[in-house]
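To illustrate the input format used throughout this study, we show a single complete record. The first block contains the structure-token representation of the backbone; no residue identities are included at this stage. The design step must infer an amino acid for every position from geometry alone.
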């Protein structure tokens, strides 16, 4: 994960700095775990990423996960997929 966000040219250092600082950021670990165990990540982050020039914004889980073919869905899609009905 870290190699991708630091070397892809999509983010400036200010954007990926939290992901690469000391390994404490959960996002790359979450994506790696989901990739290893073929899981789906439930997140309310949008699948938005750099559009053109490198950005100072932090990488979003769905955008990076998509690069590694890891599926994501939002909370409402998760409830729908589990056929949740409020009582």
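Output of the design step:
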């Amino acid at each position: 994960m870290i190699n991708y966000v630091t070397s892809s040219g999509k983010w400036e250092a200010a954007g990926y700095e939290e992901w690469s600082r000391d390994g404490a950021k959960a996002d790359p670990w979450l994506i790696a775990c989901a990739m290893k165990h073929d899981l789906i990540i439930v997140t309310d982050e949008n699948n938005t990423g750099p559009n053109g020039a490198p950005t100072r914004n932090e990488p979003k889980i769905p955008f990076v996960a998509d690069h590694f073919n890891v599926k994501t869905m939002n909370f409402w899609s998760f409830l729908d997929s589990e056929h949740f009905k409020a009582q």
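Structural context for interpreting the output: The first strand starts at residue 41 and ends at 42. The two ends are 41 Å apart (CA to CA).
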